[in-house]
Amino acid sequence: MLKIHNVQVSVEGKHILNGVDIEIKPGEIHAIMGPNGSGKSTLAYTLAGHPKYHVDGGEIGLDGINILDQSPDLRARSGLFLAFQYPVEIAGVSVQNFLRVAYEAKFGKLKSIIEFRKHLQELAEELHVKKELVERSLNDGFSGGEKKRVEILQMAALQPKYAVLDETDSGLDVDAIKTIAEGVRAIVKKHKTGVIVITHYQRILKYLKPDKVHVMVKGKIIKSGGKSFAQELEKSGYAAYV
Amino acid sequence: MSRFAPIQHPQPQNNAVISDTYSLGFSDPTDSYALHSKKGLDVAMIERISAEKDEPAWMLATRLEAYKTFLAKPHHVWLPGTHVLNFEDISYYLKPVNTRPQSWDDVPAYIKNTFDRIGVPQAERDHLAGLTAQYESEKIYGSIKKIWADKGVIFLSMDEGLKQYPDLVQEYFGKVIPTGDNKFSALNTACWSGGSFVYVPKGVHIDLPLQTYFRINAQNAGQFERTLIIADEGSQVTYAEGCSSPSYSTASLHAAVVEIFVKKGARVQYITVQNWYKDVYNLVTKRAWVEEEGHMEWLDCNLGSKLTVKYPSFILAGKGARGETMSIAVASGDQHQDTGSKAIHLAPYTSSTIISKSICKGGGRTTYRGMVNIGPNAHGSKNKVVCDALIFDPESRSDTYPTERVFTNDVSLEHEATVSRIGEDQLFYLISRGLTEEEAGKMIVRGFAEPLVKKLPMEFAVEMNRLIDLEMEGSVG
């Protein structure tokens, strides 16, 4: 279980999260909605361990271990994954080589690099990622949609226990949102990944069918609910709760 | 300190920048040397070097004239760091053995062992057309595969070249880099020893590299190799050089001169993987003369040395001649890599590309110094210069000094320069996928170097990546 308990976070001395509680079991999908500046992305970066985000209090437990003491790479190797809102471009490093190194950092030396590449190509096909992107430099010159899809490809390849998708749907058209949602659902089914999806828009809820939805305002979860709450938000948005 | 260090284990502040990852810093005893010159250079020493080599009179005269030029030439004011070099504290000629071994088996065991540790003879068996190993001032071993010798390819030390082909040497020696080109070309001309002499006959394409490996062993040693490559019409050759030295704390001096003649339609690729220990002053002059439709390519990698001053150049003398320089420099700690290139366009429709990449960290300094000169007859010519610098921390420094002189219209010039701080966002992105900060730094730097590394033959590419990784170890932050 990923247990976020009473987490308080400040950035450059400014309080952003004022005690957030969420519990995610393996195989569950949770959505966090809320207006700009409510602290959704701060929660994502805090989970990943970005040094800019200072944890003033609370705990984050990953299967019983408090990960707040861990460096970001250790968190990743423990099974946490962040799909970035703005994936970073890295010239000269191919997607497949990068993922091989990341995979080996987590799971140990591969038996066959060729098998791994084949596996990546299959995943790329499932996620509608153009095959040549896997051989190109990481995010270098990719379109916005391509970057987001490659984030999900990375998630599929690295098989995290828990993943945070930070506004993966923003800037995408409906078809792309549908593909990504299907991809995420397939990963959840295959690896029992627990997922937090951070979003502005209710439209992704339709395809993602989350188990729980949380509305975050001013650094606090002000309302949470199950499938019926999700359906309500899908129709009318979260504005009524802000 | 690591910005992404585990919270409960902050790493201690560590400003020791010279890494101890240099694996080739061992040394051999020098007591058995056949000749170990006293420190300092004078006329008697130059006469002695020339006598040892039993040279023709014109070469001794050239040396003595060059010595006068060396003494007369001031240090360039713009050249940083060389004024602290004490020329009196260098041994100018070191001859390890009296007679040159005829085969690898005859090489003294300690020298053989040194080259074995570096992996040089192994390299020959696997992927080279020919190999020369130079130890201190002299070639210690050399071979060329029979198939190339039979086609008339000459691959000798410069001393042997002068002995066996005196007319050819006299015709080309000092013709593209005159003695007085700069203080260090004059010094080299005065006391040169070793280096390579290569002749590739018309139309011969050598498909594997010829390689020379240079090893400095003694403390306060000077190495002054002189290389001359003549690629006759329509021929092709790749020449590669590697080097290393023991880890002393006092200065050694390496001042080489490399002259290349690329005849009509010929192509020469010259690869350098410079890995001197961080006490070596590496002051090298390299220039190619390129005739009609000829193609000169410098692939220049500088990782070692205390100070490197080197601007591989080409004079595009024939119509349609092409020149390319791709270089990468890595500087950390006290290191300064002052590198670049010069493109001299003399003929019409000539083209040149200079791509310079540099990485500095932990107080290291990289400088790009380049000159593009397009003469009055070089109409229709093209030049492109790209300088990319990657800076790791505020202690490090990178400068770019481009010069362009254009004496004709109808030319195309492009200049791009980028300077990037290694991005915290890039590091965090990779780290969040499970890479340690060090692995992430290596990956970013490898990616940065990739456009150059991918042009190297496989074995050199592997070696370059290994050296870059070593440079990055324990140093990101």
Task: Describe this structure as you would to a colleague.
The complex is a heterodimer of chains A (242) and B (477). Chain A is of the alpha/beta class and 242 residues long. In chain A, 38% of the residues lie in helices and 30% in strands. Chain A contains 8 helices and 12 strands. Chain A has a 6-stranded mixed sheet, sandwiched between helices. In chain A, helix 5 (144-158) packs parallel to helix 6 (174-191). The mean pLDDT of chain A is 93. Chain B is an alpha/beta fold. Chain B has one domain (35-472). In chain B, a hairpin with a 2-residue loop joins strand 3 (130-135) and strand 4 (138-144). At the A-B interface, helix 2, strand 7 and helix 3 of A face helix 9 and helix 10 of B.
Give a nutshell description of this structure.
Chain A has 242 residues and is an alpha/beta fold. In chain A, 38% of the residues lie in helices and 30% in strands.
Oligomer: heterodimer
Approximately how much beta-strand content do the residues of chain A carry? 25-35%
If strands are numbered along the chain, what order do they take across the biggest sheet of chain A? 6-9-10-3-11-12
Shape of chain B: globular
What ranges of chain A have pLDDT less than 50 throughout 5 or more consecutive residues?
none
Low-confidence segments of chain B: 6-19
Compute the separation of the termini of chain B in Å.
6 Å
SSE class of chain A: alpha/beta
Strand element count of chain A:
12
Provide the descriptors you would attach to this structure in a database record.
heterodimer, A: 242 residues, alpha/beta, Rossmann fold, six-stranded mixed beta sheet, four-stranded antiparallel beta sheet, 12 strands, B: 477 residues, 35% strand
